[in-house]
Amino acid sequence: MQALLADGRLTPGVRVPSERDLAAALGVGRGTVAAAYERMRASGHLVRRRGSGTWTATPTEAPPLPFTPAPSPAGTIDLAHAAPTAPAEAVTEAGHAALAALPAHLCSAGYDVVGLSALREAVADRLADEGLPTHPDEVLITSGSQHAHSLVARALVRPGDRVVLDQPTYPNAIGLVHDSSARPVPVSLERSDDGTLDWDVRALAAALRESTPATAYLVADQHNPTGAVMGAATREGVVDAFRRHGVPIVVDDSLRDTWIDAPPPPCLGSFAGPRSESTVITIGSLSKTVWAGLRIGWLRAPRALVRRIATTRASDDVAPPVLGQLMALALLERHDELAATNRARLRAGRDHLLRALPAALPDWSVRRPGGGMALWADLGAPRSSALAEAAPRHGLVLASGPRFGVGGAFESRLRVPYTLPLDVLDDAVVRLAATWDDLDRAPSVLTTVV
C-alpha cells in the first residue's frame, strides 16, 4: 500500500478493506494484516476514523512548494519548466503588426475587461474548428491559462470545497487549490494492458459521488506530465459522469496542439453538447504552441459565467493588455503554421532524448509519449526529491516528481522536458547522470516535497 501511495496509483482518502476482508482476500492471517495496518497508522499512511473504518493518508498534509525555482547562476540548465522558446521571426513580426494597429485603440481607456472583440472572435473561430461551436460572448481573454483557471476558481470554489484533480497533474493547479483554501481530490490515471494511460471513469464517478466537489481540473490532451491522451469513449463517459452530478469541469487545452504522432480526438468540450454547456469550461493559451512570454490566454464558458467572472476581475488584473492581445491576434492568424513548426521541434527533441536518456541512465525507464513536451521517467527508486536537491550543484534545475502529485506521491518519478535545443539536451543528460551518480556515492537525506 505504501508503494501504491508513493507512485500515485492509490490516493489519500480511500477507505481500505477491513482487516478480516483483506486477510481473506490475500490468504494470510488476520494478525499479519493487523500488524501491517498498525505500522502504516504509525507512519501516517493510514488513519482510523471512528465509525467509518480505516482510510489512506499521507504522513503530512503540508501544501506543495511553489513551482518557481529561485534565480539560478549563468550556465544553469532549466529542466523544471516545459515550454518552447519563441519563434523569433514570427513573434517579432507580430510585435510590428501590433504596434501598427495600436493607434486605433488609443482613443479608449484600454480597459476591456473581457478582451478585444477581434481576439475573442479569433479564439471562438479556433474553438469552432476544434468541434466546439463558440460565440465570442462566451470567450474571455486572460493573462495565460493559469490566470484563466484562477479566475474560474475565484468564481466557483469556496474555502473548504473539494476540487477533483488528475493524479499526477500540473503543479500550479494543485497550488491553486491550496491557495483557494480548498481540498484536492486526486484521481489516478489507469494503465491499460497495452501500457497506455487513460482516465478511470468509474474512479472519477466515485470521487464525484463521495466528495461532492465544486469543480474539477483535467488535462485531457498531451497530459502534463505523462503525455497521455484521453480516449474518445472515455471523454463521453467523463462528460456524462460530471453532467449527472452537476459538477463543472475545467479542461486545460493548452497542450492540445503539441501532439506529435497523431491528432487527439475532438476536444472534451465538444462532447458536452448544447444542453449541458456548463459541464465543461475550456481554458487555453499560446504559451505551449508559440511563447509563454506573451502571457495571453482565454477561457470559454457559458455567457452567464463569463459575465460573472468579468464583474469580479476588477480586483485582479482589471483587463488584459491591449498590445499583447494585438500580438496574439496576429499570431493566431498563423497558428496552424506555428503549431506545425513547434511539433517538428518537439518530435526531434523527444526522439533525441529517448535515445540519450536510457544510454546515460540505463536503470531508468521511460515510455514514448505521443505528444506533449516531456518524458515522465521512472527512476526505479524513490529519490526524486533528493535528485532535485542535488541538481543545482551540477548546474541543473529540476522539478521533483512529488510536485506533480497530491500527498507526496511520485517520489520515483521525474519529468524531463525535451523543449531545449538538442545540444543543450545532451549537456543536460550528462549533468543529470552525474547528479544521479553522486547520490549513489554520497546519499543525501530524502526530503519529500508534498
Layout of strands and helices, then pairs:
Layout: H1 2-6, H2 19-26, H3 30-43, E1 46-49, E2 53-56, E3 77-78, H4 88-101, H5 117-129, E4 139-142, H6 145-156, E5 162-167, H7 171-179, E6 183-188, E7 190-191, E8 197-198, H8 201-211, E9 215-218, H9 232-245, E10 249-252, E11 280-285, E12 297-300, H10 303-312, H11 322-332, H12 335-360, E13 374-378, H13 384-390, E14 396-397, E15 413-417, H14 422-441
Parallel strand pairs: 3-14, 5-6, 5-9, 9-10, 10-11
Antiparallel strand pairs: 1-2, 4-12, 7-8, 11-12, 13-15
Descriptive account of the structure:
This protein has three domains: 2-56, Winged helix-like DNA-binding domain superfamily/Winged helix DNA-binding domain (Arc Repressor Mutant, subunit A); 77-82 and 341-441, Aspartate Aminotransferase, domain 1 (Alpha-Beta Complex); 88-333, Aspartate Aminotransferase, domain 2 (3-Layer(aba) Sandwich). It has 14 helices and 15 strands. The protein has helices spanning 2-6, 19-26, 30-43, 88-101, 117-129, 145-156, 171-179, 201-211, 232-245, 303-312, 322-332, 335-360, 384-390, 422-441; strands at residues 46-49, 53-56, 77-78, 139-142, 162-167, 183-188, 190-191, 197-198, 215-218, 249-252, 280-285, 297-300, 374-378, 396-397, 413-417. β9, α9 (232-245) and β10 (249-252) form a beta-alpha-beta unit. It is globular, with a radius of gyration of 23 Å. GO terms for molecular function: DNA binding; DNA-binding transcription factor activity; pyridoxal phosphate binding. Keywords: DNA-binding, Pyridoxal phosphate, Transcription, Transcription regulation. InterPro entries: Aminotransferase_I/II_large (IPR004839), HTH_trans_reg/aminotransferase (IPR051446), PyrdxlP-dep_Trfase (IPR015424), PyrdxlP-dep_Trfase_major (IPR015421), Tscrpt_reg_HTH_GntR (IPR000524), WH-like_DNA-bd_sf (IPR036388), WH_DNA-bd_sf (IPR036390).
